[in-house]
Amino acid sequence: MLLWYNSRNCESEGGGKKMKAKREHGDSVDGERDLKRQRVVDSPSSPPEEPLVPYNDDEDDERRALNHIGSREEDGHRVESEEEDDDDEDDPYGLGSTLGRSNRQVEVRRDCPYLDTVNRQVLDFDFEKFCSVSLSNLNVYACLVCGKYYQGRGKKSHAYTHSLEAGHHVYINLRTEKVYCLPDGYEINDPSLDDIRHVLYPRFSREQLEQLDKNKQWSRALDGSDYLPGMVGLNNIQKTDFVNVTIQSLMRVTPLRNFFLIPENYQHCRSQLVHRFGELTRKIWHARNFKGQVSPHEFLQAVMKASKKRFRIGVQCEPVEFMSWLLNTLHADLRTSKKSSSIVHKCFQGELEVVKETQSKAITEKKESDGEQNGALKITDGQIENNNVAAETYRMPFLMLGLDLPEPPLFKDVMEKNIIPQVPLFNILKKFDGEMVTTTVRPPARMRYRVTKLPQYFILHMRRFTKNNFFREKNPTLVNFPVKNLELKDYIPLPAPTKENEKLRTKYDLIANVVHDGKPDEGFYRVFVQRKSEELWYEMQDLHVSETLPQMVALSEAYMQIYEQQQ
């Protein structure tokens, strides 16, 4: 390098005389300084200045030498030419993307002396992919020795610095899944790291989806504990049990689960909520996890952003509100046009016929002025008016149905105890028989509902909580419901099938039951879910998963239920 720069500088006559004079007077130090200054200012071959990246002569020589070598095999190692992406060594933080791209060489080695330092016990890919130093999400690597996230792998990056300070040498890119050895900079191509890649981004094939509900095999975590794929506990970060029970319930809906297990089904969608929900679904059903639980941290961050902090960590909310918001938001993000459907509506959408009776203002004013009452029927704009009452009939879609519970007794019995009332599910389902009248206060109206289309998955919500100006009350009424063979046609009128040879499916089986325990403001939620492969029931409360009897499911204070239509 020094000879090359001297030959360039000797072309300048003034520079040569000056150098010679300096050497004659013995001032060698000042001469070297002038040479460096002249080389930077006057030499036409000096590299162009980049405001974001400092220039390094050694790196330039290495790049030039590697370009001369090309792609080849040498000593059992492969040297490949790959196009620069955000892994650029000269641009460690991904800032130079607008300065142009060039081809560089990355050595790929099949052997690495540091592979035995990889510690799978500390690896956790459930949290957000942010650098632990710069808090940036660009070009983030995970240290496979300590599990921390660092940005970049260039010589000025945090990952490179960590490799020198801590002696940790194996890193995986959290986006491309490539593994590198730092500070050497070569890529590691070893099949023993495939299990880490599968935990980072679980993958499912179409054949595996068909076997999920038939699989009876347990999986084993690194700590020796056994877990069931699809029955893993979810970490309660802080008062997020309402999110956990909702997620666990939706994981039992087979078409929705299968849709989100294949990322190609929604790769056109730009919503972070959709992709985070898909990642969480794949982690829950993955059979090769390093641990027997999953933390929904990334999903919760997407929920807070999409809901504008309506649902956030540390604030308790009702699962039915979160379920309603989540299903509507997923549908809006997944559909390609306003008229198109989505997997959410294919699973849960039904239809109601609503008859709304209100006081007719026009007839009321006429009665007050004339003192007469018209008892004849009058049809105007699709409404029927009779004796000051206007009846309007219309149809509306629904994703879940709300059921009203009877009021609990106000007074204690002879034994000085409150009797907890019980009511059959069929009694409160009469609200949708088309005859029972439901009165609304705002606006004052009399409503009648009738189901005209049954969904494949039926979501029922029991309204247990009432709120007034002073406090929040909980209705402790127990609902008696069947776990299997809920026959709807015996209790509510159902529409005739649309096709002649089509058989109307009216039987449903329970697959998820969310319950609430404790006081209205201090209680917690848990969920009973069914494992289809063995038809066993499991009770899930955050990280705790235990097998239970079907009889115990019906003895709880049901809050929200999901029924599956029998095929």
UniProtKB/TrEMBL annotation:
Residues 24-40, 62-80 have a biased composition (Basic and acidic residues). InterPro entries: Papain-like_cys_pep_sf, Peptidase_C19_UCH, Ub_carboxyl-term_hydrolase, USP, USP39, Znf_RING/FYVE/PHD, Znf_UBP. It is found in: Nucleus. Keywords: Metal-binding, mRNA processing, mRNA splicing, Nucleus, Spliceosome, Zinc, Zinc-finger. It comes from the Eukaryota. It holds the Pfam family zf-UBP. CDD domains: Peptidase_C19M. Residues 81-92 have a biased composition (Acidic residues). The keyword Zinc applies. SUPFAM superfamilies: Cysteine proteinases, RING/U-box. Residues 232-566 form the USP domain. GO terms for molecular function: cysteine-type deubiquitinase activity; zinc ion binding. One of its GO terms (cellular component) is spliceosomal complex. Residues 1-102 are annotated as: Disordered. GO terms for biological process: protein deubiquitination; spliceosomal complex assembly. Residues 110-207 form the UBP-type domain. Belongs to the peptidase C19 family. This is USP domain-containing protein. It comes from Gossypium darwinii. The lineage of its organism: Eukaryota, Viridiplantae, Streptophyta, Embryophyta, Tracheophyta.
